[in-house]
Amino acid sequence: MSGIILIVDAVATNRIVLKVKLAAAHFDVHQASGGAAALASARDLVPDLVILGAAPRDMSGEALIAALRACPDLASVPVVVLLSENTAAARVAALKAGADDVIAQPVDERVMLARLRALLRQHLALQDMRLNAGPDRAAGFGEAPGVLLRPGRITILGPSMAEAMALRTRLRGACKHHVSAVQTGAPIAGAQGAPAADVFVLTIPAIAEDTALELMAELRAAPEARHGRIVCLLPNEARALAASLLDMGASDVIAGPADMSELALRLTRQIERKQAVDQLRARLHDGLRAAMIDPLTGLYNRRFAMPFLKGLASRQNGGASGFAVMLADLDHFKRINDRMGHAAGDRVLCHVADLLGSSVREVDLVARIGGEEFLIVMPGADGSEARRAADRLCRRIGEADIALRGQTEPAHVTVSIGVALGEAQLGEARAERHVEAILEEADRALYRAKARGRNTVTIGARPAA
């Protein structure tokens, strides 16, 4: 995996040795010896990861991390602290200062590289999600993790229920997250409708390597863990598995007895990252929905309806061979806007959209494709079924009393509908031309309905495929 890594260390020998190791692993490595120089390089490079060794003379490690987090473009860049002493107090202090991970000397090179790869995967996934979701500093996506939107959900998976419950009790005393316990191998889904865990803590006993890796693979493949983070707890005698577990998708691995303060901080950091990704995913889904949904009526829009229609015409499903298309246009709609205002017009459009949506079958599509023009697609419908449906729509809309704010009398509106029949199972090459012909025929039928006095239905001829 390639990536830009900035090493910040006051000791030149440390920087050189680490650079050689990382360059051999195909990372693009840069160095800085002082805090000010490190900040300048970081702003210029925007690295994918920062490694902080011996604190620079002009700035403490904690101050440097805080300065990085204060820069919008650097706020989410992972920071790894290399410690000269491997004590729980030192690790906790580094994590509290804002480090994403802590690696103690002497460094196991294989595990260190696996940790860096895991952090880079998470960071690049977050960057890709942010890019797809679009820029939105106001929503907090350019800021560093540090403030949880809500308490997280942690599920502990242990080889025995007693061990899992014991760890749950200890962890509940060290953090404010919701913690549950499940025996390894039991279903990990919560109560029906309950959200999945943000983090799964997989405690791996001193067992055969293949069995431990199999446990990790099964958890990673579980649908309930699809978006969750996995933190593995290993006994000392199994610490050789750390690199393999990280490369299999574990977000973090802790080998040896777990200090509860350190574990709580590490889990909180994972939950922060998970919630940031969840926010971006939700915004991405909202953006996709906005691209397909008419914001006024909540119906599908033209951008969604046209591919849907083409798919019907090209689909080789062995089922129904035809479908019906209706173009419905409100009669004299401009008069409502002119006499009652555009707010009243919007209310009429929304009411008609609700009537259309509630008057067709579940498999049918209703879309708003113009100002007061709607498209209804009925898969599998023949001419008589389409005619009955169109007549029903005309009647329901014409009989509706539409209450308007500030008006003592309800508004009334009628609709004209043109219907055309299409063929399915045509294949990709013919489908697009066929859809264009169907829509043209439906439009001609709609024009004839308008010419006949409106508030009526006209069936078009079946166009040639």
From TrEMBL:
Keywords: Nucleotidyltransferase, Transferase. It is an enzyme of class 2 (transferase). Residues 321-462 form the GGDEF domain. GO terms for molecular function: diguanylate cyclase activity. Pfam families: GGDEF (PF00990), Response_reg (PF00072). Its EC number is 2.7.7.65. Gene3D superfamilies: 3.30.70.270, 3.40.50.2300. InterPro entries: CheY-like_superfamily (IPR011006), Diguanylate_Cyclase (IPR050469), GGDEF_dom (IPR000160), Nucleotide_cyclase (IPR029787), Rev_trsase/Diguanyl_cyclase (IPR043128), Sig_transdc_resp-reg_receiver (IPR001789). Residues 4-120 form the Response regulatory domain. It catalyses: 2 GTP = 3',3'-c-di-GMP + 2 diphosphate. This is diguanylate cyclase. It comes from Roseovarius aquimarinus. The lineage of its organism: Bacteria, Pseudomonadati, Pseudomonadota, Alphaproteobacteria, Rhodobacterales.
